[in-house]
Design brief:
The chain is an alpha/beta fold and about 300 residues long. It is built from 13 helices and eight strands. The chain has a six-stranded mixed β-sheet. Strands 1-8 form a two-stranded parallel ribbon. The protein is globular and about 65 Å long. The two termini are about 40 Å apart. Interacts transiently with the RNA polymerase catalytic core formed by RpoA, RpoB, RpoC and RpoZ (2 alpha, 1 beta, 1 beta' and 1 omega subunit) to form the RNA polymerase holoenzyme that can initiate transcription.
């Protein structure tokens, strides 16, 4: 009979903080695959470290992940600058618990992750650690290996930048869910009149095909244009798949209600939404690049709090 493997204290310590490490890495990178790689690299560094010298495993591991993620951000910046069409984060499935906390849900929303893309790697790391995880400036300074003064300055710049580009509305989560469900039904039935009611007058649709599948290379703007786009979804062949072979489901994506489109053998796309103060849909993020759909396809739900 096989003996059960003994789990050492170093593994236990790492597993205790693994969820936190992934949560930090994902918000820094906007990619579940890259975040998993960074967490794995952090495990290798943790395994090789002299842990007798580590007074605070949480701070030590956060520092490793933050530095690895910042390095990766710097190395991938050119890829994102030369990306075909709009670059959107890699969507992940989340649970209703994430959506229950408005601040936590917002911190992993597509809309905020898109804004974080416009920050420098250092500003992004400082913003995430301070605003999302409530680390002190001293803790962040140690994590990103900068002076506390430099960290405070980076935090100020990042906060101003995010506030200017990401207005915060007090979102009614039940209303968001209701609007998403009605949008889902209206899209399925080609009901353009209902779609016009649910969309903000200056609604914007961002589509990310990454040059791998056919998508709009520029944002689609305006109530009637976006409404017609979605009203036609149930009547057109997409990626070689007939409408009758496609199915759509409502689920939780990046902390809010979203839609997953599936073909017979693969996930085709995801939709996530941002809402205006009246509760209408103001922004739609449509990710269809197959390279970015693995985390949704494997069905894993991430707890990112």
């Amino acid at each position: 009979m096989t003996q059960p493997q003994q789990v050492g204290p170093d593994q236990l310590a790492f597993q205790q903080y693994r969820n936190l490490l992934f949560s930090v890495a994902y918000r820094l990178l906007g990619s579940a695959a890259d975040a998993e790689d960074v967490v794995q690299d952090a495990w290798l560094k943790w395994s090789a470290a002299d842990r007798s010298q580590v007074a605070d495993p949480k701070a030590y591991l956060t520092r490793i992940v933050s530095n690895l993620a910042v390095e990766r951000l710097r190395s991938t910046r050119h890829q994102r600058e030369t990306y075909v069409g709009p670059w959107l984060p890699e969507p992940i499935l989340t649970g209703p618990d994430t959506a229950d906390g408005v601040a936590m849900a917002d911190s992993v929303s597509m809309a905020l992750l898109v804004v974080l893309e416009t920050l420098s790697p250092l500003e992004r790391a400082v913003f995430v650690l301070k605003e999302v995880f409530a680390f002190s400036y001293a803790e962040i300074a140690e994590a990103v290996e900068r002076s506390e003064t430099a960290v405070r300055q980076a935090a100020h710049r990042a906060r101003e930048h995010v506030q200017a580009r990401r207005p915060r509305f007090t979102a009614d989560r039940a209303r968001q869910r209701d609007v998403t469900e009605r949008f889902f039904v209206a899209t399925s039935g080609g009901d353009i009149n209902t779609l016009m009611e649910l969309l903000s007058p200056d609604v914007t649709l961002w589509t990310d095909g990454g040059g791998k599948v056919r998508q709009a290379l520029k944002p689609v703007v305006g109530l009637e244009t976006v409404a017609r786009w979605f009203a036609a979804l149930g009547t057109v062949t997409y990626q070689g798949i007939e409408p009758g072979q496609m199915r759509a489901e409502l689920t939780w994506i990046n902390g809010g209600p979203g839609v997953v489109f599936r073909g017979p053998d693969r996930v085709l796309a995801t939709l996530t939404f941002d809402f205006d103060p009246e509760g209408r849909i103001s922004t739609i993020h449509n990710v269809a690049n197959p390279d970015k759909l693995h985390a949704v396809a494997d069905g894993t739900r991430h707890e990112l709090s």
